[in-house]
Amino acid sequence: MKLTFPYMGSTIIYQKLLQLLDHEVIMPPRPTQRTINLGVKYSPEFACFPYKVLLGSYIESLELGADTIITSGGHGPCRAGLYSEIHLKTLRNLGYHVDMIVFDDIYHYPKLFLERLRMIKNHKSFLQLIRAIYTSYQLAHAIDSLQKFMEIKQAYELEQGAFAKAFEIMRQKFAKAANTVKDVQCLQREGEMLFSSIPVHEPPESQKVRIGIVGEIYVVIESSINTGIAALLNKLGCEVTRSLYVSEWVDHALPRFIKKSDTAIIKNSKKYMEMGIGGHEIHNIGHMIHYKEQGFDGIVHLMPFACLPELITQSLIPKISIDLDMPILTLAIDEQSGAANTLTRLEAFVDLVRNHKLQKAG
Ligand code: SF4
């Protein structure tokens, strides 16, 4: 099997897991306009935007020689649960000889989940499989912790691009040398030291601007699709925190007795939304309230084209914004999105946030 997977966030996490299990891995290329064009060409117009990007990304991986795609499934009203079936049919109709290994929710389909694990464990023992999963899990947390640090401090870097350069150095080191949990821990410490050595100039607390990013998982995590929104906000001098990182998405899928509780976030959202409608809308609303409690100054809400759950969130935002006394900007992301357009809207939004903060300070 020549395995590939969806391009989402730091892909070395998935690459590492499969390499530790001795698989041949075909790395999906970072999505570009070509990826999007391919996805749009072979998708129904009304499909949600992440569906189209993933289809384009799969085609590019198959062109590179992959024959099996590992992906996640889903259940409930959101269309993510149908992705794998429709992607597979479309790819086969296009003439690709491809298979898919779909990991569905462990609670709903425990037997199926174990069966899929058996399929990817290769010739390794279950103990080796668990070790490989745990190493990749720690790797996800290590990379995300550096990324979180970067998306705050990058707002104040003295030499433009210094954090991005350091992050790339560490990304390559993780890809090459993070083969055990101990390696991951050593590299994380090295990364923290490297990041702390980057010169920054921080303004007084009262002048800092903190922006929270919420929205649909794919557009929040994947910077090639959201026009690198965290970095754009950093360039405008704002600290950024996102509601979702790859490691937290993995945490959501863990068995209840292990995973970190998110009850407070979910409870926060009850005032606006009684029940989930399939995406991350409950967490998004909960995070907006949480950001207000944490003293953030503004929120950017990312909504892919044709995403029903985030369309519902968007309809609630005017009320939430008034209740929280907080500027909230919704950006719809689709194949027409471009960095220049996003930057113009962000510049206006950041001006608004700064003025709002000044007014409140009296
Ligand atoms: S959350 Fe929205 S964009 Fe994501 S799969 Fe569901 S409908 Fe599509």
Q: How many strands in all?
A: 8
Low-confidence stretches: none
Q: Supply the number of structural domains.
A: 3
The description of the largest β-sheet is: 4 strands, parallel
Enumerate the distinct ligands: iron/sulfur cluster
- What is the multimeric organization of the chains shown? single chain
Task: State the CATH architecture of the largest domain.
Answer: 3-Layer(aba) Sandwich
Shape: globular
State the distance separating the first and last CA atoms.
Answer: 64 Å
Would you write up a description of this structure?
Helix content is 55%, strand content 11%. The protein is α/β, with parallel strands linked by helices and 362 residues long. It has three domains: 2-124, Rossmann fold (3-Layer(aba) Sandwich); 126-202; 203-362, Rossmann fold (3-Layer(aba) Sandwich), CATH 3.40.50.11900. It binds iron/sulfur cluster (SF4). Residues 48, 50, 78-80, 216, 278-279, 304, 307-310 line the site of iron/sulfur cluster (SF4).
Question: What is this structure, in a nutshell?
Answer:
This protein is an alpha/beta fold and 362 residues long. It has 15 helices and eight strands. The strands form two sheets. The protein has a four-stranded parallel β-sheet, sandwiched between helices. Strands 6-5-7-8 form a four-stranded parallel β-sheet, with helices on both faces.
What topology does this entry show?
Elements: E1 2-4, H1 12-20, E2 24-25, H2 33-41, H3 49-63, E3 68-72, H4 80-93, E4 99-103, H5 110-120, H6 126-153, H7 162-177, H8 181-196, E5 209-215, H9 217-221, H10 229-235, E6 238-242, H11 246-253, H12 263-269, H13 281-293, E7 298-304, H14 308-324, E8 328-333, H15 339-361
Parallel strand pairs: 1-2, 1-3, 3-4, 5-6, 5-7, 7-8
Helix pairs in contact: 1-6, 2-3, 3-4, 6-7, 6-8, 6-11, 7-8, 12-13, 13-14
This protein binds iron/sulfur cluster.
The site of iron/sulfur cluster has 13 residues, from helix 14.
